[in-house]
């Protein structure tokens, strides 16, 4: 029999996805951001970049370092990051407050350049949202959640063709969850439905 982890009831009486229970940073992110649409190119590029940096690490690690990421990547302004050169990459590799992975840092710069280039074809935001499925998943437990989908695989392919790096199907599924392209909050979670808010 497949084990299904249901929403967890917190001390405040609210039901949450299990990953949000316990740590206050995770809980705040779950309650205030995860699954909610964001506005603008920089906000979408930020989520794409942070999801790429998260690969192989805990999301809590990324959340705790997010203020530093925002600082060193100029608020994820695509034009600014796109102008970073080899000296900037070395500067970022010496920055102890972020994840110092050369491939991920180089990917972040490449992705900013690709984001700038995409403006001629509608932009990053429209491209990401064009892969929103007709129906959002409605998982009743964590055993019904998946790591990637047909849509996240197609999005990954489209982004790679546009010059993006470190945007595999699993990472893009996490991005789609994060920005509300899909609603992967468990049925019964008090944040279920937040993805239906207008972007």
Automatic annotation (TrEMBL):
Superkingdom of origin: Bacteria
Any one GO MF annotation of this record: metal ion binding
GO biological process: base-excision repair
Residues that hold Zn(2+) according to the record: 17, 30, 185, 189
Classification via InterPro entries: Adenine_glyco (IPR005019), DNA-3mA_glycosylase (IPR052891), DNA_glycosylase (IPR011257)
Alphabetized UniProt keyword annotations: Metal-binding, Zinc
Matches recorded under Gene3D superfamilies: Hypothetical protein, domain 2
UniProt key word ATP-binding: no
Name of this protein: DNA-3-methyladenine glycosylase I
Organism of origin: Nocardioides seonyuensis
